[in-house]
Automatic annotation (TrEMBL):
InterPro entries: NAD(P)-bd_dom_sf, ODC_Mu_crystall, ODC_N. It is an enzyme of class 1 (oxidoreductase). This is Ketimine reductase mu-crystallin. It comes from the Eukaryota.
């Protein structure tokens, strides 16, 4: 087990994550997620911990992708109090070695979530452009024939 951890802040994530590579990966993840039986995705319902005294919530969202050999947990804590004037939704992704369980990296999840959402919308519009009278609901991970 190594004690070295990679920590990537927002600017580092923005520097290395590119839509050109991200959009095809998001497309594949939609397909894998929609093929529940063979897709290899295990994604339980998120854990929610209310922090009522401070108008906040802690969410913990684990996911394992057998096809990608990826084990990741997103942790986010939106706070909606009047004192939180920025209403930021800070989040972090914890990336584990799926074979050993060792923590490999901690990454800024806010930038990744924003880019993932934009890429998902890109997939949706791409699917609308290529469909031929076949209903394609990319948002839910359901693709038309072929």
């Amino acid at each position: 087990m190594t004690n070295r951890r990679n920590i990537l802040g927002a600017s580092q994530v923005q520097h290395v994550l590119r839509y050109k590579e991200l959009i095809p990966e998001i497309e594949k993840s939609f397909v894998n997620f929609s093929d529940r039986k063979n897709g290899g995705i295990i994604q339980p319902v998120r854990l929610k911990v209310p922090v009522k005294e401070h108008s906040g919530i802690l969410y913990v969202m684990p996911c394992y992708s057998a096809k990608d050999n990826a084990l990741i947990t997103k942790v986010t804590a939106p706070y909606y109090s009047k004192d939180n004037v920025n209403h930021r939704v800070p989040s972090h992704l914890l990336y584990f070695n799926a074979g050993t369980g060792d923590l490999v990296a901690i990454m800024d999840g806010t930038v990744i979530s924003e880019m993932r959402t934009a890429s998902g919308l890109g997939c949706r519009h791409k699917a609308r452009c290529i469909r031929n009278d076949t209903e394609v609901a990319v948002h839910s991970g359901i693709w038309g024939p072929g």
